[in-house]
Design a protein that fits this description.
Two copies of one chain form a homodimer.
Chain A (H helix, E strand, L loop, with lengths): L2 H12 L3 E5 L8 H8 L4 H20 L5 E5 L9 H13 L3 E8 L3 H11 L8 E4 L5 H13 L3 E7 L6 H4 L10 H15 L9 E5 L4 H10 L5 E3 L9 H5 L9 E5 L1 H4 L18 H19 L1
Parallel strand pairs in A: 1-2, 1-8, 2-3, 3-4, 4-5, 5-6, 6-7, 7-8
Helix pairs in contact in A: 2-3, 3-4, 3-12, 5-6
Chain lengths: 301, 301
C-alpha cells in the first residue's frame, strides 16, 4: 500500500483528521519541566532529557486519538537535541502512528540523494517528509524515488500558511496567468503522476496552508490525486470551516496539523482547570484539546 | 566587521576566490578509506570516523590556500554522521577559515527562529549559512536577525545551478516581466538593505549558480551590495569565464564553490600521478587542483 493510502486508512480507522504537531521549545514546556532544566548543573543534557520526556508524553496521551504525528526538525537541530528527533519519531512509530518528518529539505539532485538516504531510508522512522520545490524536478526526484522505493511519501510545499507566503508564491506568471504556487501545484501533479501506482492518492503530497482557504479550494479541484498536509489551523488563525475545503467528498485526502493548539492547551481557557500546580497534568489538557479539534473538524465537513 | 566584509578580507589576504566544498560520500573516498569501512565490524561507527578523517585531511591540505570552506549538511544527516558536521566545521574554524554551513533551511517565522538558534548562535562554528526564500520575508527574518546579531551572514538561494532550476525560478512574472529569481533578488536586496551597516556588502548574500552566466551578469548589476556564493564551477560544467561575471571591479563580492573538483581530484588526469596505491596521497592531488582552480579563476578576472 502506498504511503498516502496508508494515511487515509488510518484517518478512516480513527475518524480523526488531525496530525498532532511537535514543535517543542523550552518556553512552551510546563513550569515543572522548565524547572528541571533551570536547576540542572548540565542544562543541555537536562534540556534534551526533558524535551524527549515531553514529546513522549505528548505522543502517548493522544496516540489513541490521532492517526499521525508531525515532528518539526527545526526544534531538534541544536547539537544536544539532534538524537532526540529520531528517538521521538521511533517512539511514535512504535505506537503505530503515521510519522511525518517536517524537514523541508531540498538541494540539487546529487545532494538531495544524500538527504533521501538520510531521512527516507528503509530503516528510518518516517512515513513521509516535507520538501521544498524551489530547485524543480531534478532537486526533488531523488527524494520522491527513494520515498516510493520504501513505501514512503513526500509533501511538497505548495502554498505555505505564513503571511509573507504571497511575496513569491502569489506572483502571477505571465504565460499561464496563474500564481507561482499554482505552477508548483502543476509540478507536484506531474511528479505524483510519474510515480502513480493505481491508488487514488499518489505518493507525492502537498503542503497547503489553511490560512488561505480560497487558494486551497482551487488547489483541491486542481490536484485531485494529491494528499494535502494542512498547517495553520488554530494558533495561526484558520478555523475548521477554513480547513474543510481541503478534503474530498469522502472526508479524506487531507490531514490538518495542530501543534501549539495541542502542546499549549494546558495554558488555555477551559483546559486550564485540568492542570495542577506548575503545569502538572498538562497531558489531560492536550488530550481534551485534541478530542475537541477532532470533533471541530469532523463537524465542519 | 560584518560577515561578508570578513569574507572579502579573507579573499584579499589569500588572493583566492575558491570556497572548498565538502560533500563527502563513501563512494568518493579513496579506496584505502573505503576499505577501512568495509572491513569494520561496526560499519556506521567506522564510516563516521573515516568521513571525519577525510574531511579534516581535506581541510588541512587546502587551509593555507582558500579563504573559506562550505560544508553541505545533506551529507551528514544520517544519524551516525550528525555529530561529524559540527566537528568538521569547528576544525575548519580552528584553522581560521571562513565556514559556510550549506543548510538551505527555511520555514514559517516561529520555526525559522528555531533554525536560527540551532545554527547561527554565537557558539556555532558557522560564519554564514544558506537559506531558502520560498516562505518570503517572515520566514527568513529570524535567520537574518540572528545572523546579524552574531556578526554572521546568510546566503539566500536566488538562482540555483541545477538544470531544473528554470521550472520555477525562470517563470516570468506578469506584473514585472521579470523571472521569479529576479523577484527573489529584489527581496534579497530589500532584506540586505534592512540590515545594512555601512559596509559595501551587507550581511545578506545570494546563491547564484555559475551554470547560468547571463543571469549572473544581470544579477551582479542589479544586486550591487550582495555577496554571491557561486556553485556550479567544475563538476557541474561552468568555466572560469562563466564565473568571472559574478565579481565586482575589484575582484571581490563573490566566492566560487568547488566540491567534487577538489575532493575527487585524485581520480583525475594530471593529478593521478601524485597518488599512490589505493588512493594514498590523495591530499596532494586535492591541493594541486585547488591551486589550479585558484589560478584559473584569478586569470579569468
Amino acid at each position: 500500500m502506498n504511503a498516502m493510502e496508508t494515511l487515509n486508512k488510518k484517518i478512516k480507522e480513527t475518524d480523526c483528521r488531525i496530525v498532532a504537531g511537535l514543535d517543542p521549545t523550552v518556553e512552551i514546556l510546563p513550569v515543572y519541566m522548565q524547572g528541571k532544566i533551570a536547576s540542572s548543573s548540565d542544562k543541555a543534557w537536562e534540556e534534551a532529557k526533558v524535551i524527549e520526556e515531553f514529546c513522549r508524553d505528548y505522543i502517548w496521551t493522544i496516540s489513541d486519538i490521532v492517526p499521525a504525528i508531525k515532528i518539526n526538525s527545526a526544534f531538534f537541530e541544536k547539537e544536544y537535541l539532534q538524537p532526540v528527533f529520531r528517538n521521538v519519531a521511533r517512539y511514535a512509530k512504535s505506537l503505530n502512528l503515521y510519522v511525518i518528518g517536517d524537514l523541508k529539505r531540498a538541494d540539487i539532485g546529487s545532494t538531495s540523494k544524500a538527504y533521501a538516504e538520510a531521512w527516507l531510508g528503509e530503516d528510518q522512522p518516517f512515513d513521509a517528509i516535507t520538501i521544498n520545490p524551489y530547485f524543480g524536478t531534478d532537486g526533488v526526484k531523488p527524494l520522491i524515488e527513494t520515498a516510493v522505493e520504501n513505501e514512503k511519501g513526500v509533501f511538497v510545499l505548495v502554498k505555505t500558511s505564513n503571511d509573507s507566503s504571497a511575496e513569491i508564491q502569489d506572483q502571477v506568471i505571465f504565460e499561464s496567468r496563474n500564481p507561482v504556487y499554482h505552477e508548483v501545484a502543476h509540478l507536484v501533479n506531474m511528479w505524483g503522476a510519474s510515480v502513480s501506482d493505481g491508488y487514488y492518492y499518489n505518493p507525492v503530497g502537498a503542503v497547503v496552508g489553511a490560512t488561505h482557504p480560497k487558494d486551497a479550494e482551487l488547489l483541491r479541484t486542481y490536484m485531485k490525486n494529491t494528499m494535502f498536509l494542512v498547517p495553520g489551523y488554530g494558533a495561526q488563525g484558520a478555523t475548521a470551516k477554513d480547513v474543510a475545503v481541503n478534503f474530498d467528498q469522502n472526508g479524506l485526502g487531507a490531514i490538518v496539523n495542530s501543534s501549539r493548539g495541542l502542546m499549549c492547551a494546558y495554558k488555555k481557557g477551559k483546559y486550564k482547570e485540568f492542570v495542577g500546580q506548575f503545569g502538572k497534568g498538562w497531558e489531560e489538557a492536550t488530550r481534551l484539546a485534541c478530542l475537541d479539534a477532532k470533533e471541530d473538524i469532523n463537524n465542519a465537513l
